[in-house]
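Sample entry (179 residues):
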Amino acid sequence: MALRAGSEMDVINQYKELGVYFQNMDYVDVKTIENDVDLRTFISRMLSYYPWWIILLYRVREIMVSVLGLVRHEKPEDLPSIKPEDLSFKPGENASFFIVCKAKEDEYWIAESPEDKHLAAFIGVVAEKINQGRTRYHVFTSVKYLHWTGPVYFNLIRPFHHIVVRSMMKAGAQKSPVA
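Predicted structure, serialized as tokens:
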């Protein structure tokens, strides 16, 4: 997939080291949101967002996994709530059910889903400072199909993917309650 000039990819393209997450991918999506929280807080709130309907979607996913013969990943007993100070920026470490690939404090954070036979999926957040205390976050998803089941699976979940990512971004951008 070619990266478009003059698009929301311009900010991401400033980081040449992130190009690998877009080259030869079968699907790339970038969504943008602005808020006044730091990168760690934004990501930790995103990854800690587990409303009932997302849990239900994961249960439906289990059915698809069985039908398509995909890799089953162990589900955690408790869904973690990640504090900003506990969010890993170290490649190879876990952050929720993702594995950190590359991160640079206050600039970007990229992670991948656990290894599967059907696809490789990455999620990334790139921070763009726009003014005093305000940041525009570019949240991307990139997917590479590894098997014929990859596009079948992903096209079944794609409509929900957009809803889930947008909802996670809104959770990341929410102002914390006043104590």
